Amino acid sequence: MNRTRKGLHGKVALVTGAGKRLGRAVALRLAEEGMDLAVHYGNSAKEAAEVVGKIEEMGQKAVAIRADLRSVDEVRRLLLEVGNELGRLDLLVNSAANFLPGSVISTTEEVWDASLDTNVKAPFFVAQAAAPMLRRSKGSIVNFADTGGLLGWPGFIGHSVAKAGVINLTNSLAKALAPDVRVNAIAPGTITMPGDPPEWEEDFVKLAPLKRTGRPSDIADAVVYLATAEFLTGHVLVLDGGRTL
Fold first, then answer.
1. 77, 106, 162, 222 — which has fewest CB within 10 A?
2. Which helix (H) or strand (E) holds 46?
3. Cβ distance 191 to 214 under 8 Å?
4. Which domains are assigned to the chain?
């Protein structure tokens, strides 16, 4: 059965951090939906090239673009290249992230700055640079928060604060860019991927009322939904098997 959403076919998406893990899964799923892709990467050139190859095998256009999202100049160059290479932009998925440990005692200034720069500063400036193209296409943004931004993780304080910032950023952008651009977020939790330590899944199963972990396909499905839900903006979709209940 053809699962392609008519609303996405023939359009263009930029997925940040698309060389690995959830960003990769999202980029490939959007290509299955008929979208052309800008595959952003930081240090994962080989992986990004593999993603581009897979997308091209599906018959879609794809380009890999490197940028350090902590630099506003590089963010602006990234969006300029997206426009030059693909001609338009309909969907921005801010999935690039880091996950740095740090307690109230152990968190250093370096860890704090790195957490906020990658997880909340970068999505804002990517959205800012993407806004003109998204306004022209009446497009949308999907940000990646996570359950740490809702619960607060004492072993990952900088990360939790940054992801809470993504939630507020989503609300603020949804108001600022309406009615032309919709802005929503996903807050994943208890998600595992191939290669993750087995103990992660065991722990997540205990925490989630559904008694199983989520998969990358669950996240990709959610991105497709948010990208096509035309009457939804400023919403944070918590995808955690009930972890936050």
1. 106
2. helix 45-57
3. yes
4. 12-238 (3.40.50.720)
pLDDT in tens, 77-116: 999 999 999 999 999 999 999 999 999 999 999 999 999 9
Could you give the 3-state DSSP secondary structure of residue 43? coil
- Distance, CA of 65 to CA of 166 (rounded, Å): 23
3-state helix, strand, coil in the chain (%, to 5): 50, 15, 35
pTM of this prediction exceeds 0.90? yes
- Angle (CA) 112-116-121 rounded to 5° is 155
Q: 36 - beta bridge partners?
A: 12
Per the structure block, which two tokens stand in for 216? Answer: 């990358």
The answer to whether the CB of 157 falls within 8 A of the CB of 119 is: no
Q: How far, in Å, CA of 181 to CA of 91, rounded?
A: 10
- Round to whole Å and give the CA distance between 86 and 185: 24
Report phi then psi at 37, rounded to 5: -130, 135
What does DSSP say about strands 62-66 and 36-41: parallel, antiparallel, or unpaired?
parallel
Residue count (the chain): 245
